[in-house]
Amino acid sequence: MQQVTIDIPDNKMAFFLELIQSLGFKADKATQNAVLTPEQIELVNIERRKIKADPNNFLKWEDARKTLKHK
Predict the structure, then answer these.
(1) Per-residue DSSP letters for 46-59?
(2) C-alpha to C-alpha distance for 31 and 42, rounded to whole angstroms
C-alpha cells in the first residue's frame, strides 16, 4: 500500500473526505488536522527571533519549570 500527503484548504476538507470515502479510500484521522496554523507558526517564529535577539531576556527552563503549577 502507498501513501500520499496533500494540502487541502480548510473550507474544502469536508468535501474532500467525503469524496475519498465514496471512492473507497481511507483517510488517516491523525493527519486530518494541521499541528499548527500559519498564524501559530508566525507567533512561534516571532518568539524565536526575540530569543535570538536577546537570549538573556528569557528564563532558563529549570527556572521556568519551578513557576508552573502541578495538578
Answers:
(1) HHHHHHHH-GGGS-
(2) 21
Decide: 45 and 52 in contact? Cβ < 8 Å. Answer: no
* pLDDT confidence bin for 42, thresholds 50/70/90: very high
pTM: 0.40
The answer to whether 21 and 27 are in contact (CB under 8 A) is yes
- Positive or negative, the CA dihedral 32, 39, 12, 14 is positive
In contact, 23 and 30? CB cutoff 8 Å: no
Q: What is the SS3 assignment for 17? A: helix
